[in-house]
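Hi R.,

Here's the chain you asked about this morning:
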Amino acid sequence: PARHLRPAVAAVVTMQEDVLVVDGLTTEIGRRAGAVRAVDRVSFSVRRGEILCLVGESGCGKTLTALSIMGLLPAAARITEGR
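And the predicted structure, written out as tokens:
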């Protein structure tokens, strides 16, 4: 269902040729009182022709960052800040 999908990024092509911009992305899992902040104010940009790798320990938020960007979060998760 598309009701819980919300775009997390602004894809823009500018003079610097940014094709993906993520600014202050925060994603939480669970209800407000017991919510866990799985992605905390992540920001990055990717220019045309660049390759970006997200690297980190297991459980650090790599997958939820990618799911947030694609608008494919599970029903229990939500973007609370950023774009």
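The mean pLDDT is 86.

Let me know if you need anything else.
M.
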